[in-house]
Every structure is written in structure tokens, then in C-alpha cells.
Amino acid sequence: MIIGGPRTDILTGVHEHTRTADPAGSRDAEDRDPTARRPLLSVIVPCFNQGGSIYRNVGEIVRRLDHAGLDHELIVVSDGSSDTTVFEAARHPGVRVLRYDRNLGKGYALRTGSAAARGAWIAWIDSDLDLDPSLLSDFLDRARRDDLEIVIG
Fold first, then answer.
1. Burial tier of 29 (Cβ tally within 10 Å: 0-12, 13-18, 19+)
2. Residue 13: in which H helix or E strand, if any?
3. For residue 56, which of 104, 127, 111, 124 has the smallest C-alpha distance?
4. Which among 27, 95, 134, 136 is placed 20 to 30 Å from 40, CA to CA?
5. H or E element that contains 145
6. Cβ–Cβ < 8 Å for 150, 2
């Protein structure tokens, strides 16, 4: 798990899938205009062929972030998954799902998600939840308190 300041890059060949809570499927202002809202924390979740677990694990991340009261966005990056990963992750309203067709590796997925992030801070967490998502709040608190640019754990 890493938390650090944002970085911007221009990426091509990336497709976004976002399900909104609006049953009509219309996109709200913040989806149309990336500058409309800047959350405190963007959480990037790279994954590859996690269709069997991604829905449950994304739900757990969202629950932990909501419980901590963190203003956040969650970005799942499917690294060329050929299973139901994109569909399952996109079932969560408000979760941004980015995908591309070829498996290009975890580093590329992290770069893709970081480039799309809107948050003042960026966190990376693996889709298998090998680290407890509730630690994100502690990491962010430490980075802000000690004026750190990055926290790794």
C-alpha cells in the first residue's frame, strides 16, 4: 500500500466504465467534468482476472473508506482481464473502472489509475486485499501530519 501526491500523464487506449446511481444512466456533473470535484483521496485498485472476488473486495474497500469518513474516489484498473472483472467492478455505483485490452503489468495499471486520479492524494491497494483497507486512513493521517510526500507499508 502506497499513498502519495498525484501525478498526471496522458494515456491512450484506456476505456472507462462507470455505473451511476441514476437509474436513467445519465452521467452527473462530476463524471462529465473531471474538475467539478476533487476528493481528498483517490484509491487505485489494479487487477487482472479477478472476476470471482473483485465485487466483494471493492465493496470492502468502499465500506472501510466510508467508515473512516474519507472523501474518496475508487478507481479499479483492469489490466487486460479476459473474465468478468470489468463487469463485476462496475456493479458498484460511483466506482470508476478503467480497462485496456492487453495485459501490460501491474506497474502500467498503477500508472493508468494514477493518471486518471482526481484526488489530492493517491493510494494504491491490491485487489486481493492482502493489506487491510482500513490502514488507508492511518497512512493518510501520517502523511498529512508529518508533511510526507509518500508513505509505504
1. exposed
2. none
3. 127
4. 27
5. helix 135-145
6. yes
Taking the C-alpha atoms of residue 82 and residue 80, their distance in angstroms, rounded to an integer, is 6
C-beta atoms surrounding 106 within 10 Å: 15
Contacts of 39 (CB under 8 A, 6+ apart): 71, 72, 73, 118, 119, 120
The CA–CA distances, whole Å, from 124 to 10, 33, 133 equal: 19, 24, 10
Residue found by looking up cell 473512516 in the block: 68
* d(C-alpha 37, C-alpha 30), whole Å: 6
Measure the CA–CA gap between 74 and 117, rounded to whole angstroms: 9
Q: What is the reported pTM? A: 0.81
Q: How far is CA 80 from CA 17, 49, 50, 85, 99, in A?
A: 14, 8, 11, 10, 7
pLDDT in tens, 13-56: 556 665 544 433 333 444 445 555 799 999 999 999 999 999 99
Q: Which residue is associated with the grid cell 501526491?
A: 5
Q: How far apart are CA 80 and CA 69, in angstroms?
A: 32
